Amino acid sequence: MEPVVVVHGGAGSRVSPEREQRVRQGVARAAAAGYRLLTAGGSALDAVEAAVAALEDDPEFNAGCGSVLNANGDVEMDASIMSGRDLSSGAVSAVRCIANPIRLARLVMEKTPHCLLTSQGAAEFAAAMGVPTVPGEQLVTERSRKRLEREKQEAQNSDQQKDRGTVGAVALDCRGDVAYATSTGGIVNKMVGRVGDTPCVGSGGYADNAVGAASTTGHGESILKVTLARLALFHVEQGKTLEEAAALALGHMQSKLRGLGGVILLDSAGAWAARWTSESMAWAAAKDGKLHVGVNLGDTRVTDLP
Ligand SMILES: NC(=O)C[C@H](N)C(=O)O
Q1: Exposure class string for 51-71: b at 16+ Cβ within 10 A, else e
Q2: b/e per residue, 168-188, with b = 16+ CB within 10 A?
Q3: Rounded-to-integer distance, Cα 253 and Cα 228, Å
Q4: Closest CA to 5 of 31, 41, 36
Q5: What is its EC number (predicted)?
Q6: Catalytic residue among 39, 141, 166, 217
Q7: Which of 9, 22, 118, 219 is 20 to 30 A from residue 282's alpha carbon, by CA?
Q8: Which secondary structure element, helix H or strand E, spans residue 226, and what is its range?
Q9: Is the CB of 26 under 6 A from ligand 1?
């Protein structure tokens, strides 16, 4: 089976020309990291974890370092991961002071009988697993501080495009297994304790070898209400192409709730799609030695992978 990995760096308003290059490089690097693992015989789970961890470490994206701030000015992060081989999944919500929530989600999946740990319990589990804590301020960037300030000034602005960011990946490995991973700082100025779609299997992502894998981004409350990832895969099960399935699922969310967002999709044969209803979504896909990268509609560039 030819391996494939697709990543996204979040749906949102237009990326400024000043940031565009950094954002392109960030998603390209993450996809290349996942692809390297896959071509060396690594699993889809390892590939999505590595790709998402690379994006969590990149301050350009709303996950890990670079996460948006809650109403108190703190970082609280959500993440989830799932294997399409046996539907095993792990997630964390409202976690603080760790660099890579996606790695903690994987530990929840592999070392506990549960699917989701939150807040204090997740912190205690992280400590028991030897996951190092980082000072909260280390995850806060100047950009996220400014965004919170701006958001507080424009408090009545209900523009759903502002809910940008979140990172995610889907992959298919040589053995035919699929997986997804999604990680986020959530939405700026959220209430303390707010949990979005990202740690919820079926909303923030889904993976099942019988169909494929999906990772989502956008307005979390809307995504939760339509279970966006599962909805997109449902359309694939019904025989739609990946492009059609993504368009139908995102269209439903927009017409029912005026919710905007994006989705990356992969099927068990290795076809893939990246689609969004917000102004932009940074994404990258690696397959057959080629790297495809896009940010705004119609600006896809294709290069050879080393
Ligand atoms: N930008 C995002 O994708 C945010 C994420 N879906 C959330 O609502 O938490």
Answers
A1: bbbbbbbbbbbbbbbbbbbbe
A2: bbbbbbeeebbbbbbbbbbbb
A3: 8
A4: 31
A5: 3.4.19.5, 3.5.1.1
A6: 166
A7: 118
A8: helix 220-226
A9: no
Cβ atoms within 10 Å, residue 121: 13
User: How distant is the alpha carbon of residue 127 from its chain centre?
Assistant: 24
Distance CA 27, CA 40 (A): 20
Catalytic status, residue 277? no
* Pairing of β 261-267 and β 167-172: unpaired
What's the one-letter identity of residue 129?
M
Q: What is the pLDDT of residues 76-100, one digit of tens each?
A: 999 999 999 999 999 999 999 999 9
The pLDDT of residue 217 is above 90: yes
Q: How far is the CA of 247 from the centre of ligand 1 (A)?
A: 19
Tell me the pLDDT tens digit for each residue of 6-23: 999 999 888 888 899 999
Q: Output the CA 132–ligand 1 centroid distance in Å.
A: 25
Q: Is any atom of ligand 1 closer than 6 Å to the C-beta of 165?
A: yes
Q: Is the CB of 218 within 6 Å of ligand 1?
A: yes
Crossing angle for the helix pair 44-56 and 17-39, nearest 10 degrees?
A: 150
Q: Is 220's C-beta closer than 6 angstroms to any atom of ligand 1? A: yes
Q: Backbone dihedral region of 119: left (phi > 0), alpha (psi from -120 to 50 degrees) or beta?
A: left
From edge to edge, which strands make up the β-sheet containing 205-208? 205-208, 212-218, 261-267, 272-276
Each residue's pLDDT tens digit, 158-187: 555 555 678 999 999 999 999 999 999 999
